[in-house]
Amino acid sequence: MELAVTAALALTLFAWGMSYVWTKIALAEMGPFTLVCFRFVLATGLFALAYAVSGRRPQRLSRADHGRLFLLALMQPVGHFAFETCGLVLTSATAAALIVAAIPLTVAGLDAALGRSRPGLGEMARILASIVGVGCVIAGGTGLRLGGQLAGDLLMVGAVVSTAGYVVLGGALTRRLDAWTVTFAQLAWGAALFAPGCAFELARRGWPPLSGRGAAALAALTVLASFAAFLCYNFALARLSATRAALWLSAVPVVTAFAAWAFLGERLTLLEAVGGAVVCAAVAAPGRRSGAAARRRREA
Asked: What is the per-residue pLDDT across 247-288, written as a single tens digit (0 to 9) for each?
């Protein structure tokens, strides 16, 4: 089982790291809400096909569970991808991924705010260092000038908060419901909630004339970053603590930085590179927990 969880997280890491590059490519040819709506409509269709071929059926849900899944979908994918996709219109793929590297420590902070854990001085220092690092990434790319990339970077901060809420609040739900059902519901709600924005963009811009490169990026976002990665991450989230599952996301900027350099020609400023290194080091640094806190985390 440990090998299966590791493989699932590795696929998620690759797909979500590459997704920033695929999104930048697709955004050159369509609006942000059109892109995310197409992505989730197609991914929902893939899930329906997978159910039909495999003979599986979604788990029966109570009315309360439907409500919980709707709230979960408001955070991820709707909240995260509304912030992320609009943010990537304005900022670079690399800067976006470096900001998203703060998710694990945001999860730890939210866990503490909800009274699920008691962070020690070391954990508080890591969270503070992560905040400073994100600030360096934003300042390095924008000089804190209003508009443009600064707005994009701040939208990425919104994506971080949305995903942290999903990881913390979704853990209990994914441990009780099967990963297929949770993922199918997330994607279907995402498609439905992004549909009005998509319709508005299509009315203003018309149908997007996709090139082969844009279509390939959309296909990769649909199959790998949505269908496969969400399923794999929900599978892992059901078997790991929220903090451990989030820790893997700290390596996403490494994948994105190499891919953005290779496919988009992006470069980091010195301050962005320093800020990204601070965030990654803060996430990777081993935290110290009291025995009681560690026991609570293992039981969670």
From this structure: 677 677 778 888 888 888 887 778 878 877 887 777 667 654
Interatomic CA distance for residues 184 and 80, integer angstroms: 17
Name the pTM for this structure: 0.75
Query: Which region holds residue 191: left if phi is over 0, alpha if psi is between -120 and 50, else beta?
Result: alpha
The first and second tokens of residue 14, run together, are: 């690759």
In whole angstroms, what is the distance from residue 139 CA to residue 192 CA? 36
Kindly give, in sequence order, each residue whose CB lies less than 8 Å from that of residue 282, ignoring residues fewer than 6 positions away: 105, 126, 127, 129, 130, 133
d(CA 232, CA 34): 25
Q: Are 178 and 56 in contact (CB under 8 A)?
A: no
Residues in Cβ contact with 149 at an 8 Å cutoff, skipping those fewer than 6 apart: 90, 91, 92, 95, 141, 142
Q: Model confidence over 42-65: pLDDT tens digits?
A: 999 998 999 999 888 888 888 888
Give me the helices (H) in the chain, please. Answer: 2-27, 32-54, 63-73, 80-90, 93-100, 103-113, 121-142, 149-176, 179-205, 212-220, 229-237, 242-247, 252-263, 270-284, 291-299
